[in-house]
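Problem: given the chain below (224 residues), write out its structure.
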Amino acid sequence: MVKVTIKGTEYTVEGTFDFGYIGLFRDKQIDLYNLEEIVLVPEEDREGDYWDRAVKTFGIKGTSDEAVSEALTLYINNFEAKVQKHIKEINNNLIAKLAEHWQDCGTPFWDESGELSLPEHMAEFEAIQATDEFEETIDEIVADYIDEPNNGTKEKCDAEAEMRRLFPIFDWDKFLSNMKPKCVCPEFDGHMGFDVSDGFGFHTFCSAVAELDDELRFLRWDNM
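Solution.
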């Protein structure tokens, strides 16, 4: 949970935002820079289009620093609670994005990302890769999660289980335990943006930037 405090033209965010495999974001990593038009202005200047959008999105009651702080605190904590309720789908969608990336680039990551390679499983991997099911299952994973809600309203495959089965040569535990969260950012439209890296190079997640909407879809995905 977090607590937002706004005083004059300064703000602080204290606490944590648990985003599953995406990472555990702490304090300054929970950044309100997208909302500067409302949090970094004097109380008497909170008006206009940005302010009206913020009032509607975050349920702000009044123009005081306290009113804005309370509304943003509640909004961020409620969004985190929703993420936690559907954390399996969120985690699966992150892995589905990795499947989509490998599908698009066709890169032999097991050669390029040596730190994550398990060569003792090469024969097992090659046998799976030679089957028609290999590409078909990756296609299914990508199709199940691309632009789809992660709020329990659609039945989907278990992306993590399937990717672990298809890629026994990849050190999934090492990969998932070394995610490097950079920032999580609430936005005026009610989306929650994030930036995360894994530190293993561009064949996995170098700097993945995305945002989740109210139904927890992964939008504006960019793996730089």
